[in-house]
Amino acid sequence: MPQFDTTFFASQIFWTIVSFAVLYAVLKKWLLPLITASLDKRTSQIEKDIEIAEQARLDMEAMKERYALQISEVDAEVEKMFKDAEARIAKKREESLHELEAEIQKKKLLLVQDEESLRKHLIEEIRHDSSDFIMAATERILEQKFNEEESEDLEHLIEDLADELPEKNKQTRH
Predict the structure, then answer these.
(1) What is the domain extent for residue 77?
(2) How far apart are the first and last CA of the chain?
(3) pLDDT score of 53
(4) Could you please report the per-residue DSSP string of 24-53?
(5) Average pLDDT of the chain?
(6) In the chain, how many domains are there?
């Protein structure tokens, strides 16, 4: 094999070094700058993405805090609305109770007045009926001759008149 022949070692080492130097120069001149630029571009893009992600994280935290604040404000407003509603309900209930009590007092007063007028009317009617009863009893007594033997008949007569009185009242009312 010729590559293991020692006479060709010097020329092989020379051309290997020249080939390596040319390859290195070509890589350094054209390929490494492209790779470096691509890596720099990729690095800068990654750094921008990291900055954007960090800014987005900060924005999200700020938004989260704003939402938490808004939620607490809404909770406070809802709590206030519930308390206001409870107060309005309690006030309405008190007003309704006062109105109901006033209505009950009016009805009691009307009932008392009606009872009093009915009582007066009944007293008048009883006076009228009793005067009629007394007049009728007196007329019958005067028509009959009264003696001691007929006293029992007189008692029966008064009882009969007392029984007739409610019937006369019914007839005069209708």
Answers:
(1) 34-173
(2) 157
(3) 96
(4) HHHIIIIIHHHHHHHHHHHHHHHHHHHHHH
(5) 84
(6) 1
